[in-house]
Amino acid sequence: MTHSIPLAVHATHEAGAKVGGIGSVLDGILSTKSYNQRVGRTILVGPMFGWDPVQMERLTDPRNGVQIRYSSLHGILYDVDEGVQQALRTVERDFQVGLLYGVRRFGEVEHEILLVDASSPHMGHVERFSYFVWENYGVESFRYNHDFEYNLYMSIAQPLFAGLKALGIDEGLAPHERVIIAHEWLGLPVAFAAQLNEPEQWRTVFYAHEVATARLLVESHAGHDTRFYNALLRARESHLPLDTVFGEQSSYFKHAIVRQAIHCDAIFAVSDTVREELRFLGGPFANCRIDLVYNGIRSEKIKVSDLLDSKRRLQEYCSKLLGFKPDYVFTHVARMVLSKALWRDVRVASHLDRLLASSGKTAVLFVLATSEPAGRQPEQVESWETSYGWPVGHRGDNGDLIGEEAAFFFDDVEPFNHSASNSKIVLVNQFGWSRDRCGRSMPADMTFSDIRRGSDLEFGQSIYEPFGISQIEPVQFGAISCVSSVCGLIGFVQQAANDLVEQGVLTAGEQNGRDGGRTTLPGGGALGSAFSASTFPLVVADYVGLPEGQAPGTPRDALDIDGAIRGSIEASSSENTARQIFERLPSSRRKKSELRRQGSALAGRMSWETVVESSFLPGLVRVCKE
């Protein structure tokens, strides 16, 4: 079989194990039928953290799907040609690193992985590579070599490329038959290493899953998204780049590296918003080609009875914890980080509580978020559950609440639960969603899929959200998704809905019923209540649009937006958002069935197979042909 792309190398920090969003993207793309039919050989390359016993144990965990064939750190050698063994050992000796080579399962297929542990690398090689990067791209490593993360990815680039050559994966291939895909800035040093060692012999792609400088500017100022995106919109009108508006940003190493992604043969962006943020970097980015490659979602066909069972389990859990069976179950599955803006959920929930009371309905909001991704020990959870009713009650002095969890619970959740009459919020700050992880109050047959399938409403009102896979996935099961107006998925939902209107699956009223959004998405679509039809399963909360007469006239005016102004916008927008949600919450089986119909249709148009066939593969093929 002749493949369109004989070799694809994915350079990513999640090569060995799924950790976050990029891991979800890799799972989606690399498991699709179309990808595996068109790409001949795939290998993922990235770091291995030999000094971290938790990370090393994860590699050998059967649930991770990794089969190690060669690892000097693990003392494993299995089914590797003697010549390849010797070549890998030479790389380890020359660069003073440890290598792991093996395969990792993605869905029903396996792909190769190559990991490097650079705990004590040969500094001569690292310094020569840093000099090359400065000489050719202007990245001044001496400004950033105090940063562990920067040093790590600069240290692993050369040995990773040397390891690829040791494996002989590109033997006999022409330059247009092999491509390196750098996932985010962390993968770019590997692309630079290829350009250093074999100029013009590899095609390279920068896959932008976010724009690090934009995230920093959004998160580090109290004006958050309200300030940043108003400044971006005004700057676009005047053709001003980010550094002119916000000041020179080169002290931030991620900014310095991402600006050099322009040297890749192609740039992919996961949303209209990310594409516009890249253009905001200015210089060559302002007018270069940037391919939109939206993230996909896993489209599942589930029996209605299974969905009802999931809802029943969630209701049973609430009854055990709080003493009532809720009419509606709301959820938010997220990392416990500033960007997820969990306080906005509480703002909206406060207005929803009054609307629920007026109709005699009740609800619970399960927030599944933790600052401890590895999770607490089950014995700890059981002790807290017995002592003070975890997860309804929490303490901040015993390892229960840590980091952002404490502020969120004590400042937002606890006051809400004291004042709300018809709804409550439960913070489950534990990795996993099962009785063995979350205590005896949880139904014995509960699984993580229940919190996705049994939800009536999934929150996701982030201040920075390049796409938002988690926010949109429950829609296919009949949930409503409430996202902020800067969420990257909006453009893809718009595109999918337009396609369904053309096919006659949705009516124009179901899809779009706009109520005149007050500003525009960076990509051109409407912000605010873009989907205001009472049956559409997406509610967009606009925290960027300012009231008429208060909108900034210039980027300088936008920079004056502070936390107080953002807070006032949140106060008014959250009330409007709650009203839209309440109007769309299903009051009958027929309405719930209609939400499932629309959500399932959208999911079918937003699947990973669709993304890979319509944008990801065409983008790679174009790069390899040019």
In short:
This is Glycosyltransferase. The chain has 626 residues and is of the alpha/beta class. It is built from 25 helices and 16 strands.
Give a verbal description of the structure.
The strands form two sheets. This protein has a ten-stranded mixed β-sheet, sandwiched between helices. A six-stranded parallel β-sheet has the order 13-12-11-14-15-16. It is globular, with a radius of gyration of 25 Å. Mean pLDDT is 92; it is low at 512-530. Helix 6 packs across helix 7 (184-197) and helix 14 (342-359) packs across helix 23. The chain starts with a strand and ends with a helix. The chain has 626 residues and is α/β, with parallel strands linked by helices. It folds into two domains: 5-209, 3-Layer(aba) Sandwich (Rossmann fold), CATH 3.40.50; 304-606, Rossmann fold (3-Layer(aba) Sandwich). The chain has 25 helices and 16 strands.
Features:
626 residues, alpha/beta, Rossmann fold, ten-stranded mixed sheet, six-stranded parallel sheet, 46% helix, Glycosyltransferase, alpha-1,4-glucan glucosyltransferase (UDP-glucose donor) activity, Glycogen_synth
Q: By CATH's scheme, which homologous superfamily of the largest domain applies?
A: Glycogen Phosphorylase B
Q: Structural class, please?
A: alpha/beta
The number of domains: 2
- Report the portion of residues in β strands: 5-15%
Question: What's the mean pLDDT score?
Answer: 92
* CATH class term of the largest domain: Alpha Beta
Which consecutive residue ranges, at least 5 long each, have pLDDT under 50? 512-530
Radius of gyration: 25 Å
Major beta sheet, specifics? 10 strands, mixed
The CATH architecture of the largest domain is 3-Layer(aba) Sandwich
Give the neighbour order of strands across the main sheet.
4-3-5-6-2-1-7-8-9-10
Q: Can you count the helices? A: 25
GO molecular function: alpha-1,4-glucan glucosyltransferase (UDP-glucose donor) activity
Keywords: Glycosyltransferase, Transferase
Organism: Caldilineaceae bacterium SB0664_bin_27
InterPro entries: Glycogen_synth
